[in-house]
């Protein structure tokens, strides 16, 4: 499996890109980013090479997210736009969570779509692409009217759709095309075993399946050999890692920590109901682990947490935060909160505001509650008006910005280690990277020296700090 797992960086592909080109637009979370890298890896085996220009793509894939309302409409509007602009003879595919949720019938409705693949059978993509190419060529040979220029009125596209309802027993290993050079995403679990009453993920990603420690470790060893320095372990609930294969997350962390060459390790997302004091102690003890926790609270009110089926109380949540801060005083903690969960009263909303201030989040994603199909909360009474919800989210975002700004001041004047990723997108005169606690940091640096630092860990002094990013100078 090792050879398959070997990733393909921009460097180690020497072949000329004269073959076919694939363009992928990735929506949603890191699971989708990781899936996109897998799709690119698999497609390279059938000679499709990545492009970031839609107009030159022979295959364009929309990797969809279904976490919020209007996910299907959003997909439709992308495909509509793409169909008008596509290169003649090119194929359009939809993958990801909307594909899994809607099933293969979706192609009956969207006639301009050529390929549909679910999350459970993403490894089937190369076969489906070849099938679609063959069908297209056959139609061309048979002189189907309109096919040459791709847009004949009578042209009914031959479609290829496959979405597995059942999860495959084994998660097939596939090649991966890494878009990043210095840090790499590594999936440790697929799916989620919880059933938070608002959430579509269990439907779109299936139940939790942990990869074995050996498999994960060997992937990371391969990455270290290729020069990757930082690893980000991914899962919907990383703290639940191993519960389905008789091991646990801290055992995995200790094993990974031994891999030589990897200098920094992070993980997301943590679930407060499975996070343990032992895990916090392990992160505090092992130097390669970033002192960074993404621990979504969702609400600061126990009644709401119960109706969300989150399996923890506000008090338990604060116990975890306080323990993190006790062992790692400067640790970064970020979170997610849902506003306007069905029936959330003003007092209950204010409990979430209080939680932000007490937990002192460094950042927090907020979202107004969205009804999702197949979820229990979708059928519940939701008397709060849209205006009220918008008012609440505006207020909450202001409190988060204020808290984050205050929190960021602790870095001022400190020396931090940044893994430099490249020139800053906003200002190419600066370098950008992240400190150990994950905070984005822009470094003032003469462009002539950039090459010397890119891909390296560099010691910097923090000169400015705001809610979203730090500024620094090299020491
Ligand atoms: N596994 C993670 C979250 C995954 S979904 C956890 O358990 O916390 C990412 C975020 O999207 C969630 O944290 C939640 O804040 C938000 N979210 C999920 N479903 C939502 C919905 N129906 N409406 C609004 N926000 C939602
Ligand atoms: Fe969704 Fe809850 Fe699972 Fe997170 S833990 S992915 S919110 S069901
Ligand atoms: Fe979206 Fe699917 Fe992730 S619904 S948030 S892309 S798991």
- Return the domain count: 3
Rg for CA atoms? 23 Å
Q: How many H/I helices?
A: 15
Q: Please describe the biggest sheet, giving its number of strands, its sense, and whether it closes into a barrel.
A: 6 strands, parallel
| Uncertain regions spanning at least 5 consecutive residues | 1-6, 9-17
Averaging pLDDT over every residue, what do you get?
93
How many angstroms does the end-to-end distance come to?
43 Å
Indicate the CATH architecture of the largest domain. Answer: Alpha-Beta Horseshoe
What's the CATH class of the largest domain, please?
A: Alpha Beta
List the ions, cofactors and other small molecules found in this model. S-adenosyl-L-homocysteine, iron/sulfur cluster, FE3-S4 cluster
Shape: globular
Find the CATH superfamily of the largest domain: tm_1862 like domain
CATH fold assignment of the largest domain: pyruvate-formate lyase- activating enzyme
Structural class: alpha/beta
Q: Work out the number of β strands.
A: 21
